[in-house]
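Lab notebook: predicted structure, single chain.

Context: the supervisor wants predicted structures on file for every construct in the current expression panel, including those that have not yet been purified. This is the next one on the list. No modifications to the sequence; it matches the entry in the shared construct table.
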Amino acid sequence: MLRRKARDPRTWTAQLEHLIEVAPQPDVSLHVVPFGTGPHHIRSCLELIFFQDGHTVAYTQSSWSGHLVEEPEDVEPLCLAYDLLRDTALTPTASLTFLRAALEEHTAKERVTAT
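Prediction complete. Output recorded below exactly as produced.
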């Protein structure tokens, strides 16, 4: 969704700048999935929560609702779908390069529009 801009160009600029700012932090691993990768199995927001005792839960969220998934047999396919999607994503370094290029492209268009 990095090519779908916000209505307000300043909001879009701030969002890209924020991603670029947090991406290098040691506790962040930002991966951009290229649009050309095609469809994947994750259709909503997915959070995987790993506990120190070894169990994992998932939280899925759509525009209308959220759902906590706790049963291991239900969490496992979500973990697999996430792993497969991450495998198609750009590396964190390449993702940061992509974000910087998207910001530059966006700000260049805004400069042209403003003149």
